[in-house]
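#onboarding

Welcome to the new folks! Below is a worked example of what a typical request in this channel looks like: someone posts a single protein sequence, and someone else replies with the predicted structure as tokens. Don't worry about understanding the tokens yet, we'll cover that in week two.

Example request:
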Amino acid sequence: MNQRPWLTSVLWLLLPTFMNAPLLFIPGGSRALAILVLLFIMAINGLIVPATSIKKSRLLFNVKISEYCAPVPLAVTVAFSCLLAICTVRGLGVFYTFSNTIANAGIFVFAVIAITVSLIQAETTENRNQILNAVFFSAPLYVAINLILFVLGLAGNRENTGLDSEAGVNQTLQLIGITTKRIVFPLAPGVNGFGAIAAFSLLICAFYGAYAKGLLKYGALIFAPLVLVALALTDARGATLAAIAAGIGALWLKKHPGWIRGAYSVLLITPLIPSLAYRFFDFANQSSLFSFATREGDIGARLGVGTGRGEIWKSILGLFSNFEPIQLVGYGPFGQAISGVSSQYAWIFNELGASLMSCHSAYLQYLIDMGYIGVIAWLGMLATIIYNTSKMLNSANEKNSTKLIATSLLLLTLIQSQTETIGTIYTPEMLIFLLVITVASSFHAQGQAVIDKSSILEKTKTYKPHRRLYNS
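Example response:
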């Protein structure tokens, strides 16, 4: 049993902040601190044997996993995290140093392992819910810390890149007469990725504020205005609209849980969306009817509807129109640069030659990085999240706040991943949220009953560890 559930919860609460804290001191940041935190979580929950008691480790290694969680969703999540790690390792020597490769690859696998052992070792349902609440609330805490650091003047107004490099006008604040640039926050590796986390944080605060009680409710009400300010400063209009749509959809699905199965149809049409979208963008840019959909005041206005996404998607689909064996496994990290296809649209980002800028579509990013295998893995991961969410929505024991937050995360991911690389290695914070919450929902999908671990320990009393390894 975990004698320190509060410590496990605190570590999960701070994990997103630990992931990017090195950005304050190291150019480009480092995942090493987050790796250490995950290893410590595994240690205090019994996985790293020398760091804990034999009794706790015996409990962990003699448990039947299917008694705790839905085994198939958990297996899919583990396999997906391993594929992410393999993809990252392929960037060794090209984009990553050895230490960066180990850290960037390990964080996905370690996150899945750490949350699994944390939930297995949870002594009661209350402890398990406490860990899940900590995982949820880590997002608004991360956003609030970024806002506070920005107010303190710690590297908050860094040079923007990509489409915003010319002016970066913040059109959200411009609506109320404030002229300023979009802000890249101190612990945020990018604008769009941070916008997605802030949008998810807004949903968390809204649902905890409306349905939770006690500390969670008051915390949500305190953090909500901070999250709104951060969203406004980031000018994440697309993420904000996606969050509103996801929130409304979650509320509707709570009353009509059977309709959640309709999300599977989104997976069926996801491969068609880029092809249909770039044709629509071509049509829209030839018509004045859609001029309102362009971002004024920067280079995006000259790119028309979709701000260049049509050109990006057309180029990538053109590359895959002629089959090559490497397309089965993809070109590795930043596949758009390795394959050379980004040279066809680098002008969008004011660049010459190959560009490292993302594909602005999670589906296409997995396709070019990890090939057809990666696409199948990504769609399988989304199907797993839909399955777990369906189980939670139909559970009479699940709290309303948990149901709504999990459902809104699913919907937000389905919406934003169509036009951004949400859920890929280029938005690691959101990807970690998806992996961890998918594992946690696998436990909840199995039911709220927590096994009496004392009975398991009784069955394993005959087990005698080697004296050299354990000194009882």
